[in-house]
Amino acid sequence: MSTTSNSTTSPHSIPSPHSASNQNQPESQNPSSSKTQPTSTSTYTLTPHELSRKRARDRKSQRAMRDRQKLSLLELQSHVSQLSSTLTTQAATFHSDLLTYQSQISTLQTQIQGLTEENRRLRAQVEENRFVGSELSLENFRFPENAGGALRDLPLPRPISYPSPPRPLEAATSPGGLFEMGGSGSNSVVKAVGGKVPKKEKEVFETIPMTCPSTCLSDRILQNYIEARRAGINTFGKIGIGLEKEMGELDMMEEEHPAWLPDINALLTPNMPKPNLDGRSVSTVVSDILLSYHEINTLPRKVAVLYIMYKLLNWLIYRTKSTYDQMPLWLRPTPSQLNTPHPAWIDRIPWPNARTYLITHPHITFDDFAMVYSSSFDVSWPYSPSHIIESSSGGMGGDGGGAGISLNPVYEQHLRQLRNWTVGEKFRRKFPELSGIIDADGEGSGEIWP
């Protein structure tokens, strides 16, 4: 009986061979036992009911973890969608604001342009009122007493053309034939002899630049002055009949003084009383215009501009070989100046190829050019400004004619070399292509301009 009870054992009390072998092995010989054995209750020691409950808990835990991951993913997706929507809204708002600002800027620019044009028109009208009317006539043109500091070049609201002065009667034709002069003095008559003869060609010094109506105040003043002086010469010369004799006398007078120079006193004493326009010297008229440019603020630069304008205007008034030869070679008109209508201010630029460039680029206006040129050009005078003038006891011809001061011959020779005329960085930034042309003109391929 006892034997039977001892031999009858529970299935759970019989150790498996594998368990027995593991128990018999030392712990050092089974290094993986501590890693493989779970910390929780082993499934080998659980009853079927406990094992089923454990598996149910595991599934629930995994399901809860998946739900949490899904919820986190949904939250992230919602956040991304919200950010995208906000970004889209902000982009649309920014674009709308940008269009609004651009429209406002365009409106402001239009208003500014309108105000600028209105201001320019009013300023031109104010300046025009000073000179139009009786004071603008050739017989009664006078400058204001403070003209030296007040004259400024302004665009004109409308172009004004001036009648050409009478010219010498070279040859005239009609359906009846050729007319020739007969008699002399006031008893001269015109006789028709029939046939035709070729018209006499003009000399080089008789061909002047082809300028258009004035585009700025200085052009207007100088064109009126030239016409007034020309009209006076023609009137004195019996409206062309005696003009050749008159011009011949002028040539003789100029050849006696081949080095006619501008009157420096007109530049240094601008407040002296002045006669009518047609009775004033070239130096006085040019000085009044020149002194209104405060950017030309040094004596060497002022005298340089006075010199070239004096030489140019003397030729445009008298149009003789003597006055033409007195101009520096680089100041004489180029073919473009003679054949293409252009503003008169271009003729006063020293560099010949630069003048051609300005004629072929009419979009460069006087205001654009003068704004930077007046403050940027230089004549590279290395000595003291006081050395450009010298005391004189008598006149050498020109506008001076009396005791006082005159141009230093050394400075005159300096001015007549185009390589000494330069422009600064401000001008070069504004007109880089034109600056290269100016540099090339100044170098003159090694030639020293006369």
Radius of gyration in whole Å, from Cα? Answer: 50 Å
Strand segment tally:
7
On the 0 to 100 scale, the average pLDDT is 73
First-residue to last-residue Cα separation: 154 Å
Question: Approximately how much helix is present in the residues?
Answer: 40-55%
Strand content: 5-15%
Q: Spatial order of the strands in the main sheet?
A: 1-2-3
Question: What is the topological layout?
Answer:
Layout: H1 2-7, H2 17-24, H3 33-36, H4 48-131, H5 147-150, E1 172-174, E2 177-182, E3 189-192, H6 217-236, H7 243-256, H8 264-268, H9 282-290, H10 299-318, H11 321-326, H12 335-339, H13 352-360, H14 366-376, E4 377-378, E5 389-392, E6 404-407, H15 409-415, E7 422-423, H16 425-430, H17 432-443
Antiparallel strand pairs: 1-2, 2-3, 4-7, 5-6
Helix pairs in contact: 6-10, 9-10, 13-17
